[in-house]
Automatic annotation (TrEMBL):
Name this protein carries in UniProt: DUF2797 domain-containing protein
Species name: Winogradskyella vincentii
Pfam families reported in the protein's UniProt record: DUF2797
Amino acid sequence: MIYRGVLTKMQTEFLEPIQYYLVFENDFIHMNQLLNKSVSIKLIGSQCLSCGLDRPIYRQGFCRTCFFDKPIAGDWIMRPELSTAHLGKEDRDLEYEKKVQLQPHIVYLANSSNVKVGVTRKSQVPTRWIDQGAHEAVEIVEVPNRYLAGITEVALKDHVADKTNWRNMLKNDVKDEDLIEWRNKLKKFIPDEAKDYFIENNSETHLYFPVGQYPEKPKSLNLNKSIEFEGKLVGIKGQYLIFEDNTVFNVRANEGLVVELSM
Ligand SMILES: [Zn+2]
């Protein structure tokens, strides 16, 4: 079987274990069914996720022009504290920014290699945690807009990490943490504007990834360098495909590449 299409991050279903789907324009592949099978990935070209043109991908699946022009790639995406739609202030397209920013957002703690703080739209829970490969997570604050979530994250970053170590996440070099205890410990650092939105009563969410064999020394596949790769798929965690020979492929980091997948 050969599938061809533009890579976008895998769609997921929050089941035990998590189910992954690679979605192409006319087809989708249920990736869990490829576990323990030989899969080959070949680079064909690139296609910007915004303009659809055959241009080199700059960041986040976008060509350089779209990355700097389109509202979907504004700075407030990666840095929520820069959000201004709640003030009626435009960055690139106020209508779009209102739609995305003025909706419930969650500040959470997730543990993928260490405990980290993060922000996501409420509608993206637990998708965001799955994409990060977190094996446990808990919401700490639910606020009505992205700005409030952003300033809360910034304040908490002084007391907890905001990055994960992808190698440790993939090696499953992790330990269980009591995230409720972490949440209660961090409560006093939540900025005044967001204090009323603290979530007192909820429990940890646990996530189970379909991994048969963790890589001991993950090495990242770069299709721009090697064009084609073939290997036995032994696991999926976060947005990574894990192969038997320690090769790992970050689907999300390769959004916009046109590939041929055969199995
Ligand atoms: Zn483009």
